[in-house]
Amino acid sequence: MKGSYLAFIAVIFLVFASFFGCASREAPPPPPPPPLPEPEPDRLVPLTPYIIYRLGENDRLPEDINKYQFVLSDRIVLEREYSGRVDRIETGGRVRFEDVRSIAYITIPERTDGQGFDLNIIEGEVIVSVGFESDESYNLDFSAMTAEPFSYFYLKYDPFNDASPYGDEKGIVKYGEREYTLRYVGARPYLLIDLYYLDTVLFNPRTVEGRRVN
To answer: Whole-model pTM above 0.85?
Structure first.
């Protein structure tokens, strides 16, 4: 009976030893993942007369207007329709008259990069001309009032008198020496600039030693 008891104890000991031995050989848990990097702040801010004034304080305008990255806020479409005639004589002496109706449809998507070409101030209005194509003759004007330093530079165009607030036909805009019908949905497009602000505090400590009179 005593031998059976000792055998039972030995079996229990082997079970515990096997269990704890396997547990000790398990791989350690993986280290926690590194923290994610802080996202870069959105550096596209609306262009305002205040920004123009501040750039001008450093004598950077208007000569350097082409060095800043501008961006269109929202999608716009420029549409132009024109007609022409193609007259020809076909085989057998048959005359063919063809009236051709062409529609130019130019889309400038949201967040399209642009480059400034000109800056003018006319009767209290600041006008920035920006091109979104490689051809410098194709540009659009954006304007803001000098008396409103934090107003946006909205797209400049001649609005239709009967334009519906719910439709996308807004008015006429000049683009590449030709006039186009301007289309957009929602708020009036405006100009953004690639810029961000930093608040920096410079601490310059100094201890005064005093002056002793001899």
So the answer is: no
Quick one: average pLDDT of 131-142? 94
Whole-number Cα distances in Å, 44 to 58, 73, 108, 205:
21, 9, 18, 36
Strand 113-122 to 125-131 pairing: antiparallel
Strand 178-183 and strand 169-175: the pairing is antiparallel
Domain ranges of the chain: 44-77+107-194
Among 32-36, 149-153, 154-158, 179-183, the minimum mean pLDDT is found in 32-36
Residue 130: CB atoms within 10 A of its CB come to 25
